[in-house]
Amino acid sequence: MPVMEPGLDADLLRTWATEIDDGPFSSLCWGERIAFDNPDALTLLGALSAWTRRVRLVTTVVVPQLHDPVMLAKALATGDMLCGGRLTVGLGIGGRHEDYHAVGADTATQNIRGMADRVDIMRRVWAGEKITESVLPVGPGPVQAGGPELHVGTTGPKTIRSAAAWASGVAGVTLDLDLAKQNELFDVARAAWADAAKPAPHLATSFWFALGNRDGTGDDPREQVHRHLRHYMNWIPADFVDAIAPTTGWAGTEKELAATLRRFADLGTDEVQLIPTSSDPEQLRRAAQVAAEFG
What we know:
By secondary structure, this protein is of the alpha/beta class.
């Protein structure tokens, strides 16, 4: 979903959601920021549950330290109920102090332990445990037994190893599409899950993408990625964003995108999540054609 693009409205978001649901995609993903002009992630979950019927709904990612964990558990269980058990919750520590400051969250919790502590509370809520003196436990109960599937959103080996205790997969991101580096992280996850005597983890990664026009007209796809990064990475000095833009994300043709996806598949990647750099639904439709042919 193009949630980090400017100028969104309900009609545009509904168009993206319904076309993703109708297309060949396995999931529909969206992220969270606070001090930004994106839609609230949990409110959007309700709308996406109503607008879709098939695809898995995946938060990539929600930062639990920005929320009261009991209220977050209740909201996510409600979302799981509304979408009929199609929710996967990607959780991350978050990379911006400003989001913590915006909600009065303690930046001292911006670490692995702070995330794990809140996961523990949420899982207790989803298990129907009374965590305070109350007549009834906090509900509703999620459709998925024990709560929605949890993935850890990180590029750090230490966080991946720690999350093996509670996550069933990895919601990764690659800035420069370095396959060797991605495979190293996947190997860390495979080993950590094996050490924890758990089934093999779901291995997902994501990257920004832009498809150029077939006839060479219109916006240059690399410039589209650059423009998006300038907007999204507004907490980073612009000259640094400009320096990394030529090698961050992916830009090219449909044929080149298919080849890139094939290389990730060869690593054993279970899922690649494409991050839009434009809210134009035509980018989605062209990506859908690639996904259909790739599958």
